[in-house]
């Protein structure tokens, strides 16, 4: 049987190692079984603890910190369904490749599957959605088991951090008594005071011969394009720009590629393709013979369709995570290689191309479409599209823009165009859920300021509990709530043609006045009356601390009409232009 | 490839069968991939649909209906993390044996694990926490596949309903286009218009020879007790009372045994054991030689300890679900047999015992403890214990009382004593989570009126989203919110002796004024000032529709002091009494 000394020594060694390996933040949900781990973590001088009662919100909050810092964040909860509430965030972390260390307390073996309180089967609780699962031993202070606690910890952090990053799950059985002995020497390690095992993760790379072959093959193509989906690496940005410049390939830049903002000149950036790739003339004019893809599959459905329609082109996908981000079944080549390294190597091997007509065509069409799209600035009514256009102008330097799924991410794609500010754009695009968005954004905001979140009313409602973190930890967050009273995206889908049951099943108006809930969380709430009021409040709020919600009420119908009209006007201009070129 | 005809015919057959097999309620969360199933369900004239955006709340709401009706309830959501949000309720349903039919829409095979949007691995998403998982075929209108859809549906409902009841999961891959053709003949079945397979589930029973042996063996024991944990079956109540009367065994009745309320005379019911089994003199006086247990393990820790301390006694556990509800490692015999049937058979085989001193001892101690406990009625301050005492008197005939975990269930155990009203008492005691309680109770309320929910502030906060159902569907629910600003139970646990970090990790005050959120959901809110105000509001609210929240503010410290003082006074009286008996 383990006693207080076993408990204390074993957990202290684990927690000491957690900090040594670089974990800074632990998000804890209160509970009894997790007491020993919670107390020891709270006692550690270098771990920052965040206590959040709703485990679903807690796990998305942790996801947000990990996304923003690209470093593993630990989560701790008690036994039972508490741990099951982590499931959505764990899946999102797995697919969007975010490092999380999930620590769950459990009943010891003799209290499992026998009807004991708060006991569920926690072995492989998250199935294949974690990179690694370990059922830990009971606490034990022998030297061997202290080494075990430290090496498992070190390995867990390394596994979560190595590419593709992702969640790991360690399940800790604890017997009563659950109270460790806290004293000053708690974290004094008797053996190897640094990291127990120094773990170095190399970058995945192809051989020089293979790079040479790829470079040689690329020289054949005249009409090449680079597609960048969600990717968040400083190295990569610089190098893909260099590669595009050498090859004179346009970069089709998803809003989450981090290429639509920044200090570079944006010479090769195409950012309005979602509008003009709906036009047949444009698609005909832009047929590529090679497509090089980096990052996740972009948001734009028009782009996905274009890729699928060009299966004759050589399609190359580069993925440092050695996955299969390729739903189009178009790829000819899948290169498992660090993306920045790939760009660097190929750039050094191919000849500089002074210019290509193909790039010029993309850029010209992009200019034309951009000209139409920014016409949205003239809209007097409150509109979802114009909001993103304005954000482009108004977001302060260094801001993070977090965007909800469903409509906001699509409007971001359409209207948040290239700018020279340093804006980091984020979203939960692993599983594209409407769950946990508030918490993820507030997690981001806890380590990255200023932070702006744009989301719809259903998404806001889904994670209202997430607002608590802002109140408890005085985290500044600017929420731009687009309230069209229901699920706006369905108006764009075939469901909209079936009026029977439409409002009930898809429109789903909630009729909630969110002013109340913002008051409960001690936030500042403003119902935006018009764009002047918006600008004024936006500016004013930059000097207000804590939670700030600006609600922008729109209607689903007018939003759809506005989008359709814009796409039509883009299409008209694009057709005129393409046909003008031909004559 | 499947087309609209395949889609329509296959799903219509499935949904027709769902209704034929007796499913009445479907809780749907909006989404795109689930469109065909949602539209066909909405079209069915006999299925009642409930649309709830937050899948976690939706699934607990479904759990509530299923608990109250003891009939399977269907759940439907779209692909992605939507389905992962069902996990806590699925686990609760599995452990507390509640029938749920979980229907999840999924991407078709070619869009899985390739980075397509909103696609996660849904195969065996809930692991071992469902009784049955089926990856459905793609929609197909051939006669063979219509038979397949109908038989799988029929089998799913039967599997969920048979003992032990529990959740099943059917995963439906759907390809675009997702719109079925709704017409008048949608649910016309061409073959077997009734249930496709008539499934009859028998009751589990021992052989007559075995019953005879058990009856014979029971005759040997003088000091026998019956322990009833959570169980909810009308048959059982009557028969266990008859058995107790024949054997003259006391029934130690957990508040969830449904034995503490009802029209019977309560002659053998012991309901204050949690108070007096903390006393060594009582425990010494009450040593049993046989313990017969039915239902889940009771809430009372004092009772569990007493059972463990009496391993010399013959301990018999009866479980119709053929599980292992036995964390004490004390059972000598485990009988997998329908509980009502067991009582009936044994009653018919054993001789009538006119009286036992052992029963008299239990009842005398129970009377003494009861006398002390109802002294709480004199408390002038707002107190958690007195609330349950008052509910005993004030709850209207036929009410359902739903109780949150952590402190409320324990106060229920201590203070909600035997009464002759028809009160059904419910709680989520599978995994004892603080998640989903509001939704479960509102699900119960949607089919059983009047309904009262007593819960603490952390539990209320955890599922605030659950309040939406009351607003959307005008469901009457009376919420008695005990707000002690944090986790009250920890004051009773050893953690309370560690002042360092206590408030941060365990006290966790949220400092929320819930008045605001009740206003958002258009509910009636009252902050209770004193017991007179409580009575007045309680009575008044019986004539108010919709959501009603009565907030009772208490302090964790005074609650703990009150409980400790009461236990002490019970113990003093009990000791005096036991010693008096001996002299």
TrEMBL record, chains A, B:
Task: Using the record's annotation, list all stretches that form the Thiamine pyrophosphate enzyme N-terminal TPP-binding domain.
Answer: 13-124
Q: Which InterPro entries match?
A: DHS-like_NAD/FAD-binding_dom, MenaQ_synth_MenD, MenD_middle, THDP-binding, Thiamin_PyroP_enz_TPP-bd_dom
- What pathway is it annotated to? Quinol/quinone metabolism; menaquinone biosynthesis; Quinol/quinone metabolism; 1,4-dihydroxy-2-naphthoate biosynthesis; 1,4-dihydroxy-2-naphthoate from chorismate: step 2/7
Span of domain Menaquinone biosynthesis protein MenD middle? 220-403
Q: What is its EC number?
A: 2.2.1.9
Name the keywords, alphabetized.
Magnesium, Manganese, Menaquinone biosynthesis, Metal-binding, Thiamine pyrophosphate, Transferase
State what this protein does.
Catalyzes the thiamine diphosphate-dependent decarboxylation of 2-oxoglutarate and the subsequent addition of the resulting succinic semialdehyde-thiamine pyrophosphate anion to isochorismate to yield 2-succinyl-5-enolpyruvyl-6-hydroxy-3-cyclohexene-1-carboxylate (SEPHCHC).
| Protein name, as recorded | 2-succinyl-5-enolpyruvyl-6-hydroxy-3-cyclohexene-1-carboxylate synthase
Q: Which organism is it from?
A: Mesobacillus subterraneus
Underlying gene: menD
């Amino acid at each position: 049987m383990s006693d207080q000394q076993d408990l204390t020594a074993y957990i202290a060694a684990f927690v000491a190692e957690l900090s040594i390996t670089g974990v800074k933040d632990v998000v804890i949900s209160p509970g009894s079984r997790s007491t020993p781990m919670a107390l020891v973590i709270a006692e550690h001088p270098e771990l920052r603890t965040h206590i959040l009662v709703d485990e679903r919100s807690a796990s998305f909050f942790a996801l947000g910190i990990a996304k923003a810092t690209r470093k593993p964040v630990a989560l701790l909860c008690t036994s039972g369904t508490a741990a099951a509430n982590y499931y959505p965030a764990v899946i999102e972390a797995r697919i969007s490749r975010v490092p999380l260390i999930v620590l769950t307390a459990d009943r010891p073996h003799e209290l499992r599957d026998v009807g004991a309180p708060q006991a569920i089967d926690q072995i492989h609780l998250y199935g294949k959605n974690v990179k690694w699962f370990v059922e830990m031993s009971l606490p034990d202070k022998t030297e061997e088991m202290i080494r075990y606690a430290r090496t498992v910890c070190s390995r867990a952090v390394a596994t979560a951090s190595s590419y593709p990053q992702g969640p790991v799950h360690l399940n800790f059985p604890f017997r009563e008594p659950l109270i460790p002995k806290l004293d000053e020497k708690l974290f004094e390690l008797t053996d190897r005071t640094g990291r127990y095992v120094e773990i170095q993760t190399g970058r995945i790379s192809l051989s020089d011969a293979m790079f040479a072959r790829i470079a040689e093959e690329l020289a054949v193509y005249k009409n090449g394009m680079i597609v960048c989906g969600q990717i968040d690496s400083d190295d990569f940005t610089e190098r893909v720009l260099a590669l595009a410049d050498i090859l004179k390939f346009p970069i089709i830049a998803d809003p989450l590629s981090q290429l639509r903002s920044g200090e570079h000149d944006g010479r090769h950036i195409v950012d309005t393709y979602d509008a003009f790739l709906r036009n047949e003339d444009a698609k005909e004019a832009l047929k590529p013979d090679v497509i090089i893809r980096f990052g996740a599959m972009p948001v734009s459905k028009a782009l996905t369709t274009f890729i699928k329609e060009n299966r004759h082109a050589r399609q190359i996908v580069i993925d440092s995570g050695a996955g299969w981000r390729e739903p189009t079944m178009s790829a000819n080549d899948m290169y498992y290689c660090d993306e920045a390294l790939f760009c660097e190597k190929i750039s050094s091997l191919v000849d500089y191309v002074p210019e290509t007509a193909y790039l010029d065509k993309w850029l010209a069409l992009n200019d034309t479409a951009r000209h139409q799209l920014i016409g949205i600035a003239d809209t007097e009514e409150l509109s979802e599209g114009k909001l993103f256009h304005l954000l482009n102008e108004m977001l302060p330097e260094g801001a993070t823009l977090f965007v909800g799924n469903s409509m906001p991410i699509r409007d971001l794609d359409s209207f948040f165009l290239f700018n020279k500010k340093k804006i980091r754009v984020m979203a939960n695009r692993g599983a594209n859920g409407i769950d946990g968005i508030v918490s993820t954004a507030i997690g981001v905001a806890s380590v990255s300021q200023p932070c702006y979140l744009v989301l719809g009313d259903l998404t806001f409602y889904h994670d209202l509990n997430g607002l608590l973190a802002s109140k408890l930890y005085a985290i500044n967050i600017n929420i731009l709530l687009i309230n069209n009273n229901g699920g706006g995206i369905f108006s764009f889908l075939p469901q909209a043609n079936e009026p029977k049951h439409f409002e009930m099943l898809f429109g789903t108006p909630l009729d909630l006045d969110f002013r109340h809930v913002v008051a409960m969380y001690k936030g500042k709430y403003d119902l935006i009356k018009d764009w002047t009021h918006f600008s004024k409040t936006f500016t004013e709020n930059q000097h207000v601390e804590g939670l700030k919600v600006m609600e922008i009420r729109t209607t689903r119908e007018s939003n759809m009409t506005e989008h359709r009209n814009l796409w039509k006007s883009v299409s008209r201009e694009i057709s005129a232009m393409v046909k003008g070129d031909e004559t």
